[in-house]
Known about the structure:
With 197 residues, the protein is α+β, with helices and mostly antiparallel strands. 27% of the residues lie in helices and 22% in strands. The chain has a four-stranded antiparallel β-sheet with strand order 3-6-7-8, covered by helices on one side. A hairpin with a 2-residue loop joins β7 (179-189) and β8. It is extended.
Amino acid sequence: MRFLLLLLTASVLSGTWLLPASSARAQGVQRCTTMSGETVYTDKACEDVGAMNRLPDVSNAGAATTGPLYRGGCSRTLSDLVYQITAAINAKDVNRLAGVYQWSGVPDASANRILDRLEAIVQRPLVDIVPIRPEPAPIIDESGLVVDANADGYYPQTSQRQRPVGLRVMQTLKSSATPSNTTLGIRRAYNCFWIVL
């Protein structure tokens, strides 16, 4: 009895509640993150304990943080991928940018070269990230001959927008106004979006 009272007191003082494993599985334990970046496990909704499933989008992603950044899973949408790239550049964190890179199939000899290029990207100030859409199809007549290369993309005019095939990271060189653009390819694998160089 004294042991249980001591255990309960220790868990209350440390701010964590100890649940039996079977009880935790039955109630559905949630993994939540506080605003300071600490991980909290609870059987309630994250919002009920003043936490959230993941950290919100903050405008000063490059500012110093008191705790580690939490990243729950991979980028399931293109907007989340752009957010991850933006946050990595603003924080000058090459490891975070490498976390959204598709490393499968990359030989060991190329990995260091790719990491060097990613390091160069995070060291430059970010201006914008814009989507790259596929080239428009040429205009072909009835006989199959190309009438117009359609380089300007004017024809055919359609309201349906094509999904981006890449991202152009628009930056300036460090401590200057000289523009520097990097084209990142987009790949979809494991139900997530990844970047490639």
